[in-house]
Amino acid sequence: MKQIDTKPEIVYQIAMSQPESHLFEVTLQVSSWESEFLDLKMPVWTPGSYLVREYSKHLQNLVAFSHKNENLIINKLSKNYWRIDTKNINEVTVKYQIFAHELSVRTNHLDSTHGYFNPAALCFYIVGKQNYPYQIKINPPHSDWQISTPLVSVDGTFIAEDFDTLVDSPFEIGKHQIYEFQVLGKKHQLAVWGTGNIEPQKLIKDIEKLIEVEAKIFGGLPYDRYLFILHLAATGGGGLEHKYSCTLNYPRFGFRDRDKYNRFLQLVAHEFFHLWNVKRIRPIALEKFDYEQENYTPSLWFSEGTTSYYDLIIPHRAGIYDTNNLLENLSKEITKYLGTPGRLVQPVSESSFDAWIKLYRQDANSANSQISYYLKGELVSFLLDLLIRNKWDNERSLDDVMLQMWEQFGKSETGFTPNQLQQIIENVASIELKDFFAKYIDGTQELPFNEYLAPFGLHLIADPDPSIPYLGITVKTENNREIIKYVAANSPAQQVGIDPGDELLAINNFKVTSEQLTDRLKDFSAGDKINVFVFHQDELRSYWVTLDAPRPSRYQVVLKEDADILQKRNLARWLGTNRSKP
To answer: Longest Cα pair distance anywhere in the chain, in angstroms?
Structure first.
């Protein structure tokens, strides 16, 4: 006789009886259990944030008992793995606490004003039962605290169809403000925790514009309801994408200044674009998440970098900022890229693969040896967009790549391989891109900006300050000490042995601070020798440094004065508007 597999019921209750303690009180109840052991594991990372964060380090006071209130034996098998002895036990209750005092989009935060959590950082999964439904019940500490989450509530219980869905569903609990609006017939909510100079109705109108522009690229919105969670804090900034929501952190007074406001809308555009690109259009390594370890892929340059390119151009398409702003923002990105020596060391595909050990673990040599897959991926995507547009007289673009990726992989949530991604880009462009990928994605050759800008009447120019000879150090004041934080590879400073961590004291016998350094260097010319005094591990040292020629401090994308009619037409069609001349 075939044994029937009884489906266990998995129910979480999340309480926060003393929010000032920053402790979430978690109860996991498992019914209809039919195994000698109950194996529990806590994720070590959360999708969208590619770093092992060891969430279990915040766990304390773990206990388990039966329906008869008998204590059960718990064995810890690894850093995030617990085994509970459940022989002849079919109902198990597990209780523990999670310390939550990190206000970020990828962790948990609990205080007297609210509770916020990402389930990956709070909840176990039952080994072998990840595909079963998980129920969540919230017990707020006060009756006037409300709950915002993308999960659907049934009689006060939130239902996740499986553990992946649970992980993808953040919770905001508290007295936050909720604003409801509709776009293209779909319901949207903006939940705002904290106070600041935000103007909700103005912001909502601009968010609506972003949603409409992005929906047009993909042919509609793949959801019935979407939630924006916004945390207003003293500092910080960032976002984390989910299928049906996103969490955004931003400085509370960052909404009046136009540049800061535009940067926030870029953040919104970025995280919202992710509901297609990476949440549904996923590299094959992320098709099925392994929550216990790194999930390696060389394609984050597309998942994150291409998304960064779109967060640059979507606000322009939406009419939020004009062409001047777009080209200025683009110029800033190129300046950052060309000011990073690591671009000539690390391919962007390798940067993607090594995200887990490099991008979020910066050290004194990172800028010399690494390049961000966000940054270079953004600029590679920009060049691909221009390449396709130029080839097809703007009848095709990177938008067509995104739509094909959506149709072929996103709708079915089938992971794509690097070769499949390249093939779709080649199909849209109708040219072979083997050399392009070898040089600029799997290689470290300089990106040929002007070659790709020329058909659009644009030109990249360097803007060096001829009065500042090149030394090659970055200095920051820390506790009244002038600390050298960075020494550029092959710079005059590096060549004589000046190190990151040295304390800068003087140049030519006169004290110099981080604020004074640039002005002091203006007193010299390329080829001059200066005597630099530092403390190296508390030992006084002096170095004779020969200054080099000034380096560009800024690059600008500008309209060529002799641009012809065809180039101007190409530019207008890339921009999609003639609101402002660059």
So the answer is: 92
